[in-house]
Write a structure and sequence with these properties.
Layout (H helix, E strand, L loop, with lengths): L3 H4 L2 E5 L4 E6 L2 E7 L4 E3 L1 H6 L6 E4 L4 H4 L5 E2 L1 H4 L14 E6 L5 E7 L3 H7 L3 E8 L3 H5 L5
Parallel strand pairs: 5-7
Antiparallel strand pairs: 1-2, 2-3, 3-4, 6-9, 7-8, 8-9
Length: 143
C-alpha cells in the first residue's frame, strides 16, 4: 500500500477505566466506553459536525453542560432548545448550545425524542464528553 494512508501512524490505546481510544498520527479521533460504540471526539466533530444527530440546549443549560452535568429534558424542549423529529433511546448525539456555533458536548440519549416531548421531565441525555473535560485536554496534545 502506498500514499498517505500507508504512512499514517495508527494506534489504539486502552485504560483501566474501560476506555479505548483510536488515534491517527498521535491525534485521538474516536473513543469507546466499555463495549459501546466508537464515538468521535469533540475535536473530530468540530471538523465533521454532521456525522451524528444534533440536539440544542437552551442558554440556561450551557454552564451545567460545560461542567459535565447530564442534559435535562426541559433544556431541550424549551423555546431555545431543539430536538430532531426522530431520536431513539441509547443514541449518541452531538449537543450544541443556543446561540453558539460549535458542538459543546456528546451524549447518549436516555429517552426517545417522543418521550422527551411528552414527559418534558427527567434526564434526557447522559453527558459523556464535553469541552475542557479530561478527554478534550488529552486530545489537545499528541499521544
Amino acid at each position: 500500500m502506498s500514499g498517505p494512508a500507508a504512512a499514517a501512524d495508527l494506534a489504539a490505546s486502552f485504560s483501566k477505566d474501560h476506555v479505548q481510544m483510536f488515534a491517527v498520527n498521535g491525534e485521538v479521533l474516536f473513543f469507546q466506553l466499555r463495549d459501546g460504540p466508537w464515538i468521535p471526539t469533540l475535536r473530530t466533530l468540530h471538523r465533521f459536525p454532521t456525522m451524528m444527530p444534533l440536539v440544542r440546549v437552551d442558554r440556561g443549560a450551557i454552564r451545567f453542560v460545560l461542567k459535565g452535568a447530564n442534559i435535562m429534558t426541559p433544556g431541550l424542549t424549551s423555546p431555545g432548545g431543539a430536538l430532531p423529529q426522530h431520536l431513539e433511546k441509547d443514541q449518541i448525539v452531538a449537543i450544541i448550545a443556543e446561540g453558539k456555533e460549535h458542538i459543546c458536548a456528546i451524549g447518549r440519549t436516555l429517552q426517545s425524542a417522543d418521550e422527551m416531548r411528552s414527559t418534558n421531565q427527567g434526564i434526557a441525555i447522559e453527558n459523556i464528553h464535553y469541552l475542557n473535560d479530561g478527554l478534550w485536554k488529552l486530545t489537545s496534545r499528541p499521544l
